[in-house]
Amino acid sequence: MENRPIGVFDSGLGGLTVVKALKKILPNERILYFGDTARLPYGVKSRDLIIQYSIQIARFLIKNDAKMIIIACNTATAMALEILKNNFTHIPIIGVIEPGSVQASLDSKNKKIGVIGTVATINSKAYDTSLSLIDKEIQVFSKQCPLFVPFVEEGMVKGEAINLIVEHYLSSFKNKIDTMILGCTHYPILKPVIKDFVKNIKLVDSASAVANHAKSILIKKRQMSELECPNQIECFVTDLPRKFGKLGEIFLGEKINHPQLVDDF
Ligand code: DGL
Q1: Which residues contact 23 (CB under 8 A, 6 or more apart)?
Q2: How far are the Cα atoms of 15, 225, 243, 255, 256 from residue 250, in angstroms, in the given order?
Q3: Confidence of residue 230 (pLDDT cuts 50, 70, 90)
Q4: Is the pTM of this model over 0.90?
Q5: To test ligand 1's pocket by mutation, which of 9, 10, 81 has the most ligand atoms within 8 angstroms of CB?
Q6: At 32, which helix (H) or strand (E)?
Q7: Rounded to whole angstroms, what are the CA distances from 199 to 50, 52, 142, 203?
Q8: Which of 20, 37, 50, 75 to mutate to test the pocket of ligand 1 (most atoms within 8 A of CB)?
Q9: Which residue in 95, 193, 231, 264 has the most C-beta neighbors within 10 A?
Q10: CB of 11 shorter than 6 A to ligand 1
Q11: 6: β partners
């Protein structure tokens, strides 16, 4: 048994979609959440910078006693997962791309899968690689959607403006695919507007697949928490803690207790 917390990070609010799934599947775990709000978005930045940020955050989470790290960010998973695993060999570190790919391959009937994500994630071809390792016959259609993240971070998740952007990005998928991977942890927050537009395409987000994967690792390593009180989430952000707390509460569906500002890590 191991009551130390699970460390989770993203550039901002998006990773809370993974936290929500973790809470459901691992209700007794404590969670340390790190949102790098001062430096978001990650998806338009260079690989080197994203690696540098990811290493810095992993160090912070480990210093704060994390027993496992979940990279709740597709961009950081694509750029930095292997490097983090090599740098911090003493704790399990998991990303979101493989679990999402496995889920999509199970859901797709015609093996035509769409992937939407940030510029960095799509350019990395991480999903193409991961899906072809699962099944060589899968055809991947991908699209960068860089405006989705700022809309989510502003809380503009419904209305005319986001509808137009959804149409602009996603029109080309219609009648082409049967499954679409939401390859950015911010995108599940836009699920209702995306679903409304793509109608009969199955949407896959990796949140619950990642949470199940985390659970199986904790069971295998005998590191499940035995805390009586249900999970507590402690949030750290690099800018605007109040704004994070306010919007985060809406997306998480529960109160976030005083996100703490981290400025010297
Ligand atoms: N939520 C992140 C992802 O899954 C990063 C979005 C961003 O900061 O651009 O890719």
Answers
A1: 31, 231, 233
A2: 14, 27, 11, 8, 10
A3: low
A4: yes
A5: 10
A6: strand 31-35
A7: 34, 39, 18, 10
A8: 75
A9: 95
A10: yes
A11: 31, 68
Q: DSSP string spanning 76-115? A: HHHHHHHHHHHH-TTS-EE-SHHHHHHHHHHH-SSSEEEE
Q: Determine whether the shortest distance from the Cβ of 207 to ligand 1 is under 6 A.
A: no
> What are the φ and ψ backbone dihedral angles of 126, each rounded to 5 degrees?
-60, -40
Token output for 159: 């209305």
The helix or strand, by DSSP H or E, that contains position 233, with its residue range, turns out to be: strand 233-237
The angle at the Cα of 97, spanning 47 to 77, to the nearest 5 degrees, equals: 30
Quick one: which atom of ligand 1 is closest to the CA of 117? 10
Atom of ligand 1 nearest to the CA of 43: 9
Q: pLDDT digits over 152-194, tens only? A: 999 999 999 999 999 999 999 989 999 999 999 999 999 999 9
Name, in order, each residue with C-beta under 8 angstroms of 127's C-beta and a sequence gap of 6 or more. Answer: 97, 100, 101, 115, 117, 121, 140, 142, 181, 183
Contact 70 CB / ligand 1 (< 6 Å): no
